[in-house]
Amino acid sequence: MALQGDVREHVAVLGQLDAVAVAVRRPMDLEGIDALVVPGGESTTISMLLHSSGLLPEVEKLVADGLPMLGTCAGMILLASKILDGRPDQVCLQAIELVVRRNAFGRQVESFESELSVVGLEGGPMHAVFIRAPVVEEAGPDVEVLASVALGRGAGDDSLRPVVCRQGRVIVAAFHPELAGDGRLHKMLLDQVELEGD
Ligand code: GLN
């Protein structure tokens, strides 16, 4: 989804995996796609552009059809089932059963980096870049939590919060694997496409 955000970085990672990336800006760009990546950026801006581009009803159909999707940071917010601290009119695609709170890792530490071990990923920890990232407040019973970090960070709450989740064909990360050039979650997405093709 190339409306706003770090589209170029996602395209680069997909290219490294030999996937053909199509920049989706208009409904016609969705024709023939096998999966959709929703990038990081600003979820309220992407929401407005989803309306003005005419993409929203089409993307809602793809969610209902169970198209494989990957959302990172703002993309995770857009794919969630409920958004806290969002704009009341912002788009919530309800592709994965998560309640997320925007910008909730703490005002003083709005950005941080972490080495995460992610369930199911080989090749060592993932270097995770969190930029004004959303916090998962609740995850539905069918959501698999693949990685978590402590909310804490000086806020006096050390509870572990999910930062990589998956429900069926939808994968989300609260951080930006694409900024670190790590394609392993994108590969997980492409594996869903291949499973479908079998
Ligand atoms: N805070 C942003 C939002 O609410 C997300 C930030 C990001 O994608 N790095 O959309």
Structural class call reads alpha/beta
Helix content: 25-40%
Order of helices and strands: HEHHEHEEEEEEEEH
Please describe the biggest sheet, giving its number of strands, its sense, and whether it closes into a barrel: 5 strands, mixed
How large is the count of helical segments?
Answer: 5
Q: Please list the strands of the largest sheet in the order they lie side by side.
A: 1-2-10-9-8
What is the C-alpha radius of gyration, as a whole number of Å?
16 Å
Mean pLDDT: 93
Instruction: Please give the alpha-carbon distance between the first and last residues.
Output: 26 Å
Number of E-type strands: 10
Poorly predicted regions: none
Bound molecules: glutamine
Q: Percent of residues in beta strands? A: 25-35%
Description:
Helices cover 26% and strands 25% of the residues. Strands 1-2-10-9-8 form a five-stranded mixed sheet. Strands 3-4-7 form a three-stranded mixed sheet. It is an alpha/beta fold and 198 residues long. The chain starts with 6 loop residues before the first helix and ends with a helix. Glutamine binds at residues 40-43, 73-74, 77, 102-103, 131-132. The site of glutamine (GLN) has 11 residues, from helix 4.
What is this structure's SSE topology?
Elements lengths: L6 H10 L19 E3 L4 H11 L1 H11 L3 E4 L1 H6 L2 E3 L13 E4 L9 E6 L9 E6 L3 E5 L4 E7 L9 E8 L2 E4 L10 H14 L1
Parallel strand pairs: 1-2, 2-10, 3-4
Antiparallel strand pairs: 4-7, 5-6, 8-9, 9-10
The structure holds glutamine.
Key attributes of the depicted protein:
alpha/beta; 5 helices; 10 strands; about 25% strand; binds glutamine
